[in-house]
Amino acid sequence: MRTIAVIPTLADNYTYVLECEGEAVAIDPGEASPVLRWLRESGCSLRAVLCTHGHFDHTTGSEQLARVTGCELHVPASSSESSFPGMAGQAGSLQAGPFQFSVIPTPGHSEDSVCYYLPPSDGSPGAVFTGDTLFVGGCGRLFTHSPETMWASFRRLASLPPDTRVYCGHDYALEDYEFAVTLEPGNARVKERLDEIRALVESGQLTVPSTVALELATNPFMRASDTMLKRALAMPDARDVDVFAELRRRKDRF
Question: Which pLDDT tens digit goes with each residue over 155-192?
Fold first, then answer.
């Protein structure tokens, strides 16, 4: 059975190491040393590194991991900030070590952003690794694309099975839900989710994984089509994408 280890790196990044029968795959290694430590302690062999996009805080550890372990490297092919030879990535299927991923193009935060979806297996629910596209309760900044492009990416993620576990690239959950509550002070479910996140943070626990169902119910960026949210924003007749754009503008000022 596969396991997913969550390794905090840098200031607030999350790196993930997936393991099955002694073979491992690392996703978004912002640093190499915590992953190498995990490999030593577990006795596992690293077969591949996957990056969701080319920003340095998701790729910096990749070259050292490849040099030390001989693993494969996979990042989106257009990663302008990456210069590691042999990296490649595309929409469709990707075999990385013992795992078969679906690569979902999700441009918006960056030109090259992708998410990696791992389907259910042996009793384990599906999992999606969303980098800086979808956060727990939030949305990545739009550096290279329009709100229309990012909203289309969000709709792709919304179509995944509801019980899919969501593993994002940063721990921004507390701030994201504090923002969400300002939009809808009377939304009991969003307030409840903020309390859940705050309790996790205060007890030193991780805020990942979430689920697609939880994000659809409480993440304002996933709820841009929601009638109650539109009314709260005084945009009852607005297009979904215009609501999404307004949410991003407000979050940028939060």
Answer: 999 999 999 999 999 999 999 999 999 999 999 999 99
Residue 74 known to be catalytic: no
- Given 28, 74, 112, 132, which residue is catalytic? 132
Residue 6 has pLDDT above 50, yes or no: yes
Question: Does residue 132 carry a catalytic annotation?
Answer: yes
Please state whether the predicted TM-score (pTM) of the whole model is above 0.90. yes
Respond yes or no: is residue 109 known to be catalytic: yes
Rg over alpha carbons for the chain, rounded to the nearest Å, is 18
> How do residues 90-123 score in pLDDT, each as one tens digit?
568 999 999 999 999 999 878 888 999 999 998 8
What is the rounded average pLDDT for all residues in the chain? 93
For the 3-253 domain, the top CATH level (class) is: alpha beta
Q: Is 145 one of the annotated active-site residues of the chain? A: no
